[in-house]
Amino acid sequence: MGHHPHQSSASSSLTDSNSRRVVVGAAILDDKHEPGQMMLARRKAPKSLAGYWEFPGGKVEAGEDLEQALRRELQEELDVEAEILDRIESPEPQGWLLGNGMRMQVYTAVIISGKATALVEHDQLAWEQLDSTALHAFEWIPADRPIVDALLEQLSR
Ligand SMILES: Nc1nc2c([nH]c(=O)n2[C@H]2C[C@H](O)[C@@H](COP(=O)(O)OP(=O)(O)OP(=O)(O)O)O2)c(=O)[nH]1
C-alpha cells in the first residue's frame, strides 16, 4: 500500500495525456520586417483533428526550452530551419488553453533555410494573407481562432 501512490504518480507523469505538457506553435511569416502572409498546416492525425488547420508545432520535450522545442518541431514536421521572433501574447502567461486542457505558446517565426514541405504530421500547407477574413475562412482547430485574432492584432501594433 505504501508504495502504490508513489509508483502511480511517477508513471502517470510519463503516460497520461497529461494537461501539464506544454505545446508550442509557430505563426510562420513570409518576411521578418514586413510580413504579408503566414503559413498554415492541415493535420493528418489524430482522427479527431484530421482536416483541421493549425500552427505547426508540437509538445515540448524534457530538457528543452520552448524555442528549442519549436525549432525542432519545425525541422521535423516541415524540414526547415526557423528563426523564432516574438511570442504572441496570451491572456494568461502559461499560454493559450487548448481543447484538451494543454497550454500552447505561439511565436512568430521566419524560415531561414529550406523549403517547407508537409512531411508526416500534415497533408497540406498553405500561405495566406494576414487578413482576418482570409484566415478565418480556413477550418482551424477551434482553440486556435482567438490566437489568429491576437496575432493579427499584435502585428498591427
Ligand atoms: N501543433 C499544434 N497543436 C495544436 C494546435 N492547436 C491545438 O489545439 N493543438 C493540440 C493538438 C494536440 O493535441 C496538441 C499538440 O500535439 P502534437 O500531436 O502536435 O504534438 P507532437 O508533434 O509533439 O506529437 P506527439 O509527440 O504527441 O505524437 O495540441 C496548433 O495550432 N498546433
UniProtKB/TrEMBL annotation:
Gene Ontology annotations of biological process type: DNA repair; DNA replication
Similarity remark: Belongs to the Nudix hydrolase family.
SUPFAM superfamilies referenced in this protein's UniProt entry, alphabetically: Nudix (SSF55811)
EC number: 3.6.1.55
MF-aspect GO terms: 8-oxo-7,8-dihydrodeoxyguanosine triphosphate pyrophosphatase activity; 8-oxo-7,8-dihydroguanosine triphosphate pyrophosphatase activity; 8-oxo-dGDP phosphatase activity; 8-oxo-GDP phosphatase activity; metal ion binding
Domain Nudix hydrolase per the UniProt entry, residue ranges: 19-155
Signal peptide range: none
UniProt key word Hydrolase: yes
Gene3D superfamilies assigned: Nucleoside Triphosphate Pyrophosphohydrolase
Name of the protein: 8-oxo-dGTP diphosphatase
CDD domains referenced in this protein's UniProt entry, alphabetically: NUDIX_MutT_NudA_like
